[in-house]
Amino acid sequence: MSYRFLSVLNAVVLAVFGAAFLAVPETVLKFFDTETYTATLFVARFLGAVLILAAMFIWMSKDLVTPGAEWTMTIMLLVSSIAGFVLTLVGMVGSDVIRANGWIPLVAHILFALGYGYLVSGISIVTKNQKQK
User: Fold this and answer.
1) What single-letter DSSP state applies at residue 63?
2) Where are the domains of the chain?
3) Three-state DSSP class for residue 41
4) Tens-place pLDDT, residues 23-36
5) Residue 6 to residue 103: CA distance in whole angstroms
């Protein structure tokens, strides 16, 4: 797995969620069985705009050539994925805000956290044929 692949995947997922929250926030909030007050819809649209901004930022950073910059972005995205996982878990269990389908963002956050954690760990799977080259 490469930084580029994981960044592209992360950007696409964020863009899809962002577009959904921006265009049809009431539908998305009902999907998660969350209240749909006027203020909640406004904050959901704001969240959608922020998610699209994050997607564009990650998309643009997928072609980083400086190892230090790539490393910094990987750490930032790892921390963001862990924080997102914790906040989603609190929203499901602690405050009962997300009442349905909370497993979807949980799985997304944990998969991205595992992916970025793998990249940070520096573990490389190399076969004998690759070593000989």
Assistant:
1) G
2) 3-125
3) helix
4) 999 999 999 999 99
5) 20
∠ CA 63-66-72, nearest 5°, is: 90
Which tokens in the block code for residue 96?
């009962």
- Phi then psi for residue 128, to 5 deg, are -60, -40
At CA 106, angle to CA 70 and CA 6, rounded to 5? 25
Q: What's the CA angle centered on 105, arms 91 and 111, to 5 degrees?
A: 125
CB 27, CB 46: distance < 8 Å: no
Q: Angle of helix 67-89 relative to helix 103-121, nearest 10 degrees?
A: 150
Amino acid at site 106: L
- Token readout for 23 is 């265009």
The token duo for 82 is 């862990």
pTM of the complete model: 0.86
The DSSP-derived string for 66-95 is -HHHHHHHHHHHHHHHHHHHHHHHIIIIIS
